[in-house]
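Structure tokens please, single chain.
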Amino acid sequence: MPLLSHGLRFAIAAYLLAALTLFMVQDRMLLPSTPSAPDLRTVPHAGASIDLLQVRDQFAGYVVTPAGREPRGTVMVYHGNEESADTKLPLADVFVRDGYRIVIVEYPGHGRRPGERTMKAALAASREALAATIAQWRGPLYLVGESLGAGMAAQVVKGNEAALAGVVLITPWDSLADVAAEKYPIFPIRWMLHDGFDSVAAVSHYDGPLVIVGAQLDTLIPVVHARRFANEHERARFMLLPTADHDDWFGVMTQADWRQVLQWMHAG
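Here you go.
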């Protein structure tokens, strides 16, 4: 019995230590360091000019503007984790070719932006970038977010519904809490998360075009979460990429897929 009692105490202590560690390092797990990439202003890029996005006189991302034409509107891009604004020019080009100005949002502690790399800071930066964009430019405004960025984009919809002409969420979670609970079923994850980042709730009052893109082979955020998200919103359009996983979805998207997305957004 003493040996059993000792073993039980050890198991409980180990469990509590693991739970505490998860609680303390969740931001680092969700927001790992980003690889270095060249400043977008140094990248040769025909057909568009690239400038800095400034928020409160600080670097907050990039603005990509089609050359020689007045932009039809603005598309804000929110990138995923292990990425930076410096890596999102290919995605920006999809919309530049259709005549849109692109605002690529950077989060603190990512890429060239200094600051604390936390979910709270990323969300605050995401909201500030939207407010700055609304204040600076007129015309239709669209949000495009992938993975973590889909979570950020969904959160900034809340309270800004009337300002948005369309929203595209790619490989999204329905809620971060739901995904985390699947991955760590032995822990009370819903109580441990600083924020459950419930995307379904965040866009529940948005009645504009909403496009959700899911990757069938996604193992990081299984496609069931994207499907559930789409099913929970009566105006959502769902696009399934049957051969894509979480990381290669962009290479799988065809021109026809993008045309469909733009049509659903009423942006084509």
